[in-house]
Amino acid sequence: MDTHDYCNDNADLYGHYDDGLPKSSSLLTQPGPYHRHVDYEAGVIMHIDPITGEVLRERAMRRPSSEEEKFKAWAKERQEDLVGLFDASRCGAKAKPKDTPNEPQRGRGRPKTVYKNPTAAYMHLLAVPHPLPWVLNIIHGSCVTSAGVVGGMIAVKQCNVLRALFLNEITAEACQTPGMSLRTAQRVAKAARHAAHGIASYVERYPRLQGEIAAELAMLPCAE
Fold first, then answer.
1. What is the mean pLDDT of residues 31-46?
2. Where is this region: Disordered (predicted)?
């Protein structure tokens, strides 16, 4: 069986919306005040009043037209990184010494883990008002894989991990709530970091989903 056919047959299992759906179907959650309409043929995403049918906002989606274009964009970015490293080496850039008198000495124990959340900017499009099925699948898998199972039960609550995915930086201190131990908060943060990486990887795999997210973020008041 072809890999593409296998993915299509199992699309419902993973909550993935394949191209077999109508081209006006949105891959994101539907917000309450308005209806999100997507025209993939025209490359336009619109916010429509569900009562009057009036178009409140409209934005064009920017998506790679082909796999070759995606590869060229990646190759250009990679080339720029290599040029930057070469220029830095020619200029004789030296690394900062490890031991400097002005820096305070770190105490005992492992350093705090700070993780820049790649999904924080668009998590509301995937989980408000209700998380999408594939998002819940990733969170559940991350809880089992990262936090583990104790006594036949998952060590952390999925709602706590979902809440942590809205943070810009995922740390144990930020995940800790009243009545939660630091050890449990560390498990929540670990599972949230695992889930954030999984969600970001999933979004990166599907250009349709990327296009909708980019258009929605461009329509935010702070982006206009």
1. 78
2. 92-112
